Amino acid sequence: MDISIAPYELTEREGLTVFHFAEDRSSAERIAREFLRAVNQYTEWFGPMHDFRGLTIIEVPTGYGSQADAATILLQASGFEDPDNPTQLYHEASHLWNVELAERPSPRWDEGLATFHEVLLVDVFARDNEYRAVEAQADRIRRSWCGSSKTRRGSERFHRSSMAMKMSPT
Ligand SMILES: [Zn+2]
Predict the structure, then answer these.
(1) What is the distance in A from the centroid of ligand 1 to the CA of 58?
(2) One domain, residues 105 and 141
(3) Which residues lie at CB < 5 A from ion ligand 1?
(4) 4 — phi, psi (to 5°)?
């Protein structure tokens, strides 16, 4: 359990509570909005968070390190301060989909996956052309494997969940 004590202000939005420093009041709404946007995208890719019961983001001074556990994200002040760099937030949000591994590879495995996701989300939200090209190619492959549109829809779900399984460390 992490305990953080400071003269926090609170911002609440859709079941999310953000504890932030007074000087980052104007960033807290953006953090909440970007976090929920990331959660929606991860949910679309990987399914709902396991055993989700609400979530809290707590700002900590830069240099303390950001981290995520089952119900809380500690996010460094640097994550609040730079509106053009939401990667810390996307990274920590990605960790909420970490699963308990039967085998125990290096913990760097989770970090590599979260780092991949933070960059991917930036690209997806920027409607990155390369990402869209990859998606279009994947759609062509799905169609060539799956035939009719009715079959294709079910198969797309299967392939998407297969992709999610490969992307998550199960
Ligand atoms: Zn991490």
Answers:
(1) 16
(2) no
(3) 111, 114
(4) -125, 125
- Say what the pTM is: 0.72
User: Amino acid letter at 69?
Assistant: D
In this predicted model, which residue has the larger pLDDT, 146 or 61?
61
How far away, in angstroms, is 154 Cα from ligand 1 center? 33
User: Same domain, yes or no, for 50 and 100?
Assistant: yes
Ligand 1 center–CA 79 separation, angstroms: 13
Distance CA 92, CA 116 (A): 12
138 Cα to the center of ligand 1, angstroms:
28
Q: Are residues 56 and 97 in the same domain?
A: yes
Confidence band of 142 (pLDDT split at 50, 70, 90)? confident
How far apart are the C-alpha atoms of 79 and 87, rounded to whole Å?
8
CB distance 60 to 77 below 8 Å: yes
pLDDT digits (tens, 9 = 90+) for 77-96: 999 998 888 999 999 999 99
Per residue in 52-69, pLDDT (tens digit) is: 778 999 999 999 999 998
| Residue 131 Cα to ligand 1 middle (Å) | 23
Do 93 and 32 belong to one domain?
yes
Residues 68 and 136 in one domain: no
